[in-house]
Amino acid sequence: MGIRVNIYYTLIGSSETHVYSSNVPSNATASGTCEFNMTSTFSIMWSDDGNDFSLHFNFHEKKAVPPKTVDWWKTESLVLKYKLGGILDAMPAGQQQAMVNHTYLQTYRAPSHQSLICGAGYQFNFVDDKGTIDIVNVRAQPFDVVDNKFSFKLWYCVHDSPFAPKKDNTVPILVGSLITAAFLITLLAYVFSRHRVRSGYQAM
User: Fold this and answer.
1) SS3 content of the chain, % helix, strand, coil (to 5)
2) Which residues touch 151 (CB under 8 Å, ≥6 apart)?
3) DSSP state string for 129-191
4) Cα-to-chain-centroid distance, residue 3
5) CA 157 to chain CA mean position, Å
6) CA–CA separation, 147 and 204 (whole Å)
7) Rounded to an integer, what distance in angstroms lies between the CA atom of residue 3 and that of residue 121?
């Protein structure tokens, strides 16, 4: 899974907005918990050129209520804590916090016994226009994990679903071919007619 955060900031004495982007490195520190009250957490901490980041996922499992039979997990909150200590005169200064609106997290979910697959990934905006976060090549399953392995049952996001409607290029290709053929026929007819007219002049 690849994660990239993009933080908006200004400099002291300037109103111009700048963007600092940081990819979660492979040596980032990760930790997580799985509670009995149907909650699960996952946190990632890393530093980048003097700037400190910690990203916190909070998941919740919703048990099925009859007549429904499938339990679902969803992302309850996604919070980024950061400090741009490596950027001189960056504002706002000190420890900051940015979070994603709960409404936009509704697509980051799957049945509890399945793992979420999404190669195309997600892009979320932080509230108060503090930046964005990109998450690609997603494989997630915070509940019902057996032997520390993902379930072989997969739940695809809309972009990656093998059942999603594919764009059919048959009609555009056919139309383009017909237009090309018509143009060639017209061109050949014009050349042939010009040749006949010229031959007529020479005969006269």
Assistant:
1) 20, 45, 35
2) 113, 114, 115, 141, 144, 145
3) G-EEEEEESEEE--SS-BTTB--SSEEE-TTT-TTSPPPP-HHHHHHHHHHHHHHHHHHHHHH
4) 10
5) 10
6) 96
7) 10
Phi first, then psi: give them for residue 10, nearest 5 degrees: -125, 170
Q: Classify residue 39 as exposed, middle or buried by CB count within 10 Å of its CB (0-12, 13-18, 19+).
A: middle
DSSP 49: T
CA distance 140 to 150: 8
Average pLDDT estimate for 147-162: 78
Q: How far apart are CA 74 and CA 102, in angstroms?
A: 10
Judge residue 103's burial from the number of C-beta atoms within 10 Å of its C-beta, 0-12 exposed, 13-18 middle, 19 or more buried: exposed
Mean pLDDT value across residues 156-167: 59
- How much is the pLDDT for 197? 46
pLDDT at 175: 43
CA 76-91-78 angle, 5° bins? 5
199: its two tokens: 């031959």
- Could you give the C-alpha distances from 107 to 95, 160, 162, 198, in angstroms and in order? 29, 13, 17, 71
pLDDT at 185 (0 to 100): 57
pLDDT in tens, 19-35: 999 999 999 999 988 76
Residue 59 to residue 109: CA distance in whole angstroms: 9
Return the DSSP state at 26: T
Distance CA 101, CA 125 (A): 8
